[in-house]
Amino acid sequence: MNLVLRHVLTRQSLRLCDKIAYNNVQKQIAITSKCPIIQYRKYSEQGTETRKLPQLMEFPPIMWPSFIKYVKNWMFSNFIIRPYFDQEFSLNEFIEASKHAVQIVSGALQNSDFKTLEGLVDKDAINALKTAVSQLSVSQRQLLAIEKEDIFYAFPYQVGVIFDDSDKRWVEITMCYHVLRGLKNMKESGDMPPITLGAQPQYQDNIFILNYRFIREFTKGVEDSWWVNIVNHFQPHMLIKKM
């Protein structure tokens, strides 16, 4: 399955250069009062903790597209990648193919099936994900798996080309996906969510944003396929609360 998926991605792919360190500092709130009401609130917060999903890897969270990057992405795709790297490359086809990768990777993470990730996800990324997933509760792991039909908005945040001194070259694409868990079932039942679902409390726990970064080597004479080297899932309403 991984070979087939990587072949599909290889027909329409790239890599992006965004090596920014990001530190996710968790805030600790000291509770000094012994009032029963305060302790009840703390118990409630612990109960909702199972519905919170911390970021899986250290990477700046991406939520929305950039117009400037949109223009650059279009130029890279049409004036560099297609004419010099891959004449059949299509950014739209890559976006659709990448959704299959998201479904496979996220499903494997939920089941702690890291063997499935081999050949599709970079080894260093797998090691980082093993550590992150091992620290999640069972309830939190159940939030990881994503069906591609639950993705309602996807866009390439950044497309880039990397060269080194030995004439090796790579293409990197950082993707952002907006997800509403259960959207597929809603569509099938005809119960469509409102346009303002992001502001509706009943939907907030089911809205996720995913950042995946894909990379492929395009050095002359090298046969390669797309790899995933960044995987991040987070809930936007929890991220906003931290700001």
UniProtKB/TrEMBL annotation:
A GO biological process held by the record: protein insertion into mitochondrial inner membrane from matrix
A single GO cellular-component term on record: mitochondrial inner membrane
One GO MF term attached to the UniProt entry: ribosome binding
Matching PANTHER family: M-AAA PROTEASE-INTERACTING PROTEIN 1, MITOCHONDRIAL
This protein's name: Juvenile hormone esterase binding protein
Gene name of the encoded protein: 733014
